[in-house]
Design brief:
two-stranded antiparallel ribbon, 12 helices, binds S-adenosylmethionine, Rossmann fold, 7-stranded mixed beta sheet, Helicase, Ruva Protein, domain 3
Length: 278
């Protein structure tokens, strides 16, 4: 089956995409080619695709990768996907929710490249889940809303800079690759999209001490953006204000600054000092 035949099938079946599942399909061959190129896929690769939809991108992945595992939550699409992938013995579709599947078990603990045109309603939880299992995922090429791509690559102090930016920067090198106009999708979403590439570092870019505590510190400082760093930290971690001030000063951060102005390095230093103090 080729992409034209997939389209005919969707039409013949009267398939109606579900907004609630973030279904915006992309069949544009040029964009698909750019995504596949960005993931540097070859026969030695195992690829995890999140949300294959009708299989336009899956088809190209299956043609090039040694193995593809595509996880799709919408059971209406499974028969079509199975048919699309039938000629490729290395590719299979798994019916399931990417936020619930046991990822290490699914991949038999092997590492995989992640390629996905993500369902936008769960972008952030999916990103955090992938980060949590990052030892399995050295490289990810993801289509996200353009505004999310901006957040992923934002600079400290900008309005897009947030917990997502800091967590990603600690564990991955993020690149904004290219913008994809809304008009290329069916149905057309309200906003443009962008493709980003994440290369996972073998260890965090800065030492942070305790990773769980680091995540809480980041959350605390972005959870209350209008407060000073001292207030946000004291509130978020449930420690005395004087203690929060002391820790910030020890990390070389003026306690009167806003959390959103801290660099990733400053967050890391703060995390480390808090971890040592425990
Ligand atoms: N990859 C296809 C393409 O590029 O045309 C479809 C992309 S569409 C933006 C997102 C896909 O993710 C849909 O097929 C949707 O059904 C699927 N999806 C939504 N929630 C999911 C979940 N929790 N787990 C797995 N797939 C999901």
């Amino acid at each position: 089956m080729d992409s034209k035949e997939i389209k005919e099938r969707l039409r013949a079946e009267g398939f109606r995409p579900r907004k609630s599942l973030g279904q915006n399909f992309l069949s544009d061959p040029r964009t698909i080619e750019r995504i596949v190129q960005a993931a540097e896929i070859g026969p030695e690769d195992l690829v995890l695709e999140i949300g294959p939809g009708a299989g336009f991108l899956t088809l190209e992945l299956a043609r090039r990768a040694g193995e593809v595992i595509a996880v799709e939550v919408d059971r209406r699409l499974i028969p079509l996907l199975e048919e699309v992938l039938a000629p490729y013995p290395g590719a299979r579709v798994v019916a399931g929710d990417i936020l619930k599947v046991d990822l290490p078990a699914l991949l038999a603990n092997r590492s995989a490249k992640v390629v996905a045109n993500l369902p936008y309603y769960i972008t952030t939880p999916v990103l955090f889940r992938l980060l949590e299992h990052r030892r399995l995922f050295p490289l990810m090429v993801l289509m996200v809303q353009k505004e999310v791509a901006r957040r992923m690559t934002a600079s400290p102090g900008s309005k897009e800079y947030g917990a997502l930016t800091v967590n990603l920067a600690l564990y991955t090198k993020v690149e904004y690759l290219f913008t994809v106009p809304a008009g290329l999708f069916w149905p057309r979403p309200e906003v443009d999209s962008a493709v980003v590439r994440l290369r996972v570092f073998s260890k965090p870019f800065y030492p942070v001490g305790d990773e769980g505590l680091f995540a809480r510190v980041v959350q605390a400082l972005f959870g209350q953006r209008r407060k000073t760093a001292a207030n946000a930290l004291s509130h978020g971690l449930g420690i005395a204000r004087e203690e929060a001030e002391k820790v910030l000063l020890a990390a070389g951060v003026d306690p009167g600054r806003r959390g959103e102005t801290l660099s990733v390095e400053e967050f890391a230093r703060l995390g480390q000092i808090l971890a040592e103090r425990k």
